[in-house]
Amino acid sequence: MTIIHRLPITTRSEPTKAAAKPREVSFYSRTSERYGEILTDNDCNLRYYYFPDAELEKPYNLAQGRNNFINARSQIKDVCSLEGVLKCVIDVEKKHDSKLNVNVITFRGILRKLIMVAYEHNPKFNKINFRVVFFDKQVFIKEINEKEDISNAIDVNSYTGYKFEALTLLNEPIAFTERDSLDSRADACVSNGDEYVSVVKTGIGKHRVLMGGEVDGIYDFKEDGADNLKHYLELKCTRSLSSYQDIENFEKKLFKTWLQCFLIGIPRITYGFRDRSYNLTSIEEYLTEDVPKLFTNRGVKAQCMDAIQWYGEIIGWLYDTLAHLETDANEIRPFKLLFSGSELDLVEIPAKDPEYDDIVNGEAVLTNEFKEWRRILKTK
Length: 380
Known about the structure:
Blueprint: E1 2-8, E2 19-30, E3 38-40, E4 48-49, H1 83-96, E5 104-107, H2 108-116, E6 129-135, E7 138-143, H3 156-168, E8 169-170, H4 179-183, E9 195-204, E10 207-214, E11 217-218, E12 232-239, H5 244-264, E13 268-274, E14 280-287, H6 291-294, H7 298-323, E15 333-339, E16 343-348, H8 356-360, H9 368-379
Parallel strand pairs: 5-7, 5-10, 12-13
Antiparallel strand pairs: 1-16, 2-3, 2-9, 4-8, 6-7, 6-15, 9-10, 11-12, 13-14, 15-16
Helix pairs in contact: 2-5, 2-7, 5-7
């Protein structure tokens, strides 16, 4: 394998790179049934936040029901698939009868991981194992799906996050929710697998990015036929802060949460805090745009601006490197994107590699439906 290009994590070539305001262009729901069915322009998995302050007076234990957790994600063939995002791209391009003017198409989680390598240098804890293809003058980035435990066993700290969501979110707005459904949330069986994904167009510097990102819920109400980014919220759950060390650790977590909300344009973050016995003790709300002002650690505060600059460096490096290669418009050029601990490595996949055929001729990254659509679009 030949290294095409290396990007040291210390690289910052420009003092500032302006980030474009994210705009929702589409959305889809992915069900945990039938191995992850994709439903574009469908919000059946969108949920609504409802948890009045008075509810905190009740003794909610976030570890309750852990043994009955249903790991529905393990039944989905490829939880990292770009299929949903690509279907949305097709729908938008059919509507406008033109190709979306973006340079990079991927998921928000992938970009967050790439940005975080500059602040979490250990590849063991920040694993980067992505596949990149250059096709039709655009860059597509996909994460390799690692097989999940087929059992329902789950770490208790991870479970409390799912439990917190189940406790605070409704399947419909409160006005349409029956009392029995509302009162039974604490006892409901917790599962994963169902997702609601917003597909957003944004950018950094001169480059445009289309990314899909899972949305936890709606804070207030949904506007039909409109961009709903301003109504979405991110839910997180963590241990209560009882020491200076706890505060430092929380600021690092909040930085990562801020980053993932900033990338896709989610304006509100809601944190649930639990004690050492996993009882829900308090809930705090943060506006994404205000988070950088809250950090007491100057290093973490400075990371916010630095992360935006590093984000622009990554996108520019990836696109400019691949766009300068001599590539036929219908050709698919496959690469691996890896992290060595001090740099990102872009490595071309040769034709003799076992992965090559499935990426270029199969559906390991791009679906056949998407490739065929782009060929049809060219004839127009």
